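RECORD TYPE: inverse folding
INPUT: structure tokens
STRUCTURE:
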């Protein structure tokens, strides 16, 4: 473990914290105390005697110990001096909440801040801070609630509003830790992921990106997360022109091409979601339910409309709702109302109100069919509008049946507010993911199935090659050279023959294709540089002469050709485009 990673771990679970600033740091001190922090608290302020009932020290050098963590909230240039003094006082790591740096166009001040920190890692500038709900500690600008957690999700973000949504949202998401990185001038998202990965109490990670940097480090921690079976759910904003402008002015983050970012996330084994709502439901599915090992869904509803809507959403998400066989229908029919035809989705109709034991027999029979996931749709009535006892009974009975069948399970409400907190807590105790909202909930199940497939493919499927240096000495290659490189990388290509002389090669199996080779040729077909279905040596020689003539008319000299066999019964052509995104 590097000293830098160890210092970041001490930052988010410190034994002592020093706050640097005036009255604006008082809420941060009070919040740390409300979370139950019992370590030493210090304040640095040369003009005040005390803040929040804590005696103020004038200089970092006067502190009786070197704190594990510092929280800096003073104006820009004062922040630089404060960080310099904290570093010299051997403080472990810092949160620089101060703004007015690169996000405001002052890259020069941000560079000075980095230099002032020396070996001391820091979050920010423009960082809201962190809150640790596992150990009851924080150095956070805003109050993010007081919700103790024994095991849950680590949320790492550029900004604070996203952290607030996940920590304070009414979704029953077990949040273990929230960290805001601000401008990422010193500590990147990858750095922070590595710092939390070895905590056995973290069972999923959520990353909110406004900009991407340090891809090599990100690849390293992605491998480590997969080895530990810790899913990483990623949200990337700034993918539109307006979003990119907002990201740049918020945390000085440069947006990246959305297609490239999505491809990178897939390659790293990250689960990409569109927004905070989808992230919360996906994280619940991944952190509460058992691991999903397939796409076959056994879907139970209490309404025909829920069955139809859910089936549509599931199919669009790439999930499977296998139809019941005649034997399975025969098994289920005696356990159901006579007017209901057993199917998948299974419509309970009035069985929703039946005694527990009757519902349990039906659920057990249905879930004995080979499914990978058990899913039920139940939307509870609003409080004081309808008797809800039967909703709780059917939900609990479903959860118990899914557990007996050994299946990962989720209960989804058709609308977000259709699953009250009491019901969610009951389901979590059963190991059933309480998902709120049909669209986000079904996609959460899809993401869990995708993650199961990522685990099955293994670490080699997400490992990135060492990046090539394209800044200097780059060159283009012709088709024959490119295919040779692909073969070395394990990609199957047609076995071709390079033709560089005037004589037709002898060992050719016809029919073949003939192609011009030249690094300056981008589109061979536009200049007559491809001939297909050549059946004899004479046709091959004639095709070569035609191509040479066509090239000379365009001022090009062609020195070699590629001969490849014609492939039969192929599925089609695969065109691969490569984009390079700055930074």
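DESIGNED SEQUENCE:
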């Amino acid at each position: 473990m590097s000293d830098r990673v160890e210092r970041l771990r001490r930052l988010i679970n410190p034994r002592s914290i020093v706050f640097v600033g005036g009255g604006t740091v008082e809420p941060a001190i009070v919040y740390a105390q409300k979370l139950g922090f019992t370590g030493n608290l210090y304040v640095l302020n040369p003009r005040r005697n005390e803040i929040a009932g804590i005696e103020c020290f004038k200089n970092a050098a006067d502190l009786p110990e070197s704190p594990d963590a510092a929280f800096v909230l003073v104006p820009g240039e004062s922040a630089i001096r404060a960080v310099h003094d904290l570093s010299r006082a051997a403080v472990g790591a810092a949160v620089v909440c101060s703004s007015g740096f690169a996000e405001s166009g002052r890259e020069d001040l941000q560079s000075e801040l980095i230099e002032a920190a020396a070996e001391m890692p820091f979050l920010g500038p423009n960082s809201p801070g962190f809150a640790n709900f596992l150990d009851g500690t924080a150095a956070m600008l805003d109050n993010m609630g007081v919700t103790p957690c024994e095991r849950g999700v680590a949320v790492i973000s550029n900004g604070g509003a996203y952290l607030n949504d996940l920590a304070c949202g009414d979704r029953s998401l077990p949040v273990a830790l929230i960290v805001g990185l601000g401008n990422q001038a010193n500590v990147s998202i990858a750095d922070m992921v590595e710092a939390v990965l070895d905590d056995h109490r973290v069972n999923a990670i959520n990353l909110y990106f406004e900009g991407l940097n340090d891809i090599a480090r990100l690849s390293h921690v992605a491998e480590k997360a997969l080895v530990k079976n810790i899913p990483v759910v990623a949200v990337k904003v700034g993918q539109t022109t307006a979003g990119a402008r907002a990201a740049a002015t918020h945390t000085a983050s440069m947006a990246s091409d959305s297609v490239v970012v999505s491809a990178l996330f897939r390659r790293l084994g990250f689960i990409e979601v569109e927004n905070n709502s989808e992230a919360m439901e996906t994280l619940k599915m991944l952190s509460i339910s058992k691991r999903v090992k397939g796409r076959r869904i056994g879907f139970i509803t209490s309404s025909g409309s829920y069955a139809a809507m859910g089936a549509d959403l599931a199919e669009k998400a790439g999930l499977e709702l296998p139809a019941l066989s005649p034997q399975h229908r025969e098994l289920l029919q005696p356990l159901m109302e006579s007017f209901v035809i057993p199917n998948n989705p299974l419509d309970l109709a009035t069985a929703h109100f039946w005694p527990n034991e009757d519902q349990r027999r039906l659920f057990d029979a249905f879930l004995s069919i080979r499914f990978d996931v058990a899913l039920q749709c139940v939307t509870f009535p609003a409080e004081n509008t309808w008797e809800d006892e039967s909703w709780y009974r059917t939900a609990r009975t479903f959860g118990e049946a899914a557990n007996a069948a050994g299946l990962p399970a989720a209960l989804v409400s058709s609308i977000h507010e259709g699953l009250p907190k009491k019901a969610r807590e009951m389901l979590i105790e059963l190991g059933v993911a309480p998902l709120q909202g049909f669209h986000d909930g079904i996609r959460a199940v899809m993401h869990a199935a995708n993650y199961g497939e990522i685990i099955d493919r293994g670490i080699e499927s997400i490992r990135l090659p060492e990046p090539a240096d394209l800044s200097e000495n780059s060159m283009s290659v012709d088709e024959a050279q490119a295919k040779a490189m692909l073969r070395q990388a394990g990609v199957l290509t047609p076995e071709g023959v390079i033709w560089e002389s005037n004589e037709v090669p002898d060992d050719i199996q016809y029919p073949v294709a003939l192609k011009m080779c030249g690094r300056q040729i981008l589109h061979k077909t536009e200049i007559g540089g491809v001939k297909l279905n050549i059946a004899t040596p004479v046709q091959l020689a004639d095709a070569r002469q035609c191509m040479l003539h066509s090239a000379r008319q365009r001022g090009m000299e062609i020195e070699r050709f590629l001969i490849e066999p014609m492939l039969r019964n192929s599925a089609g052509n695969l065109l691969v485009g490569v984009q390079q995104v700055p930074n």
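NOTES: The two ends are 27 Å apart (CA to CA).
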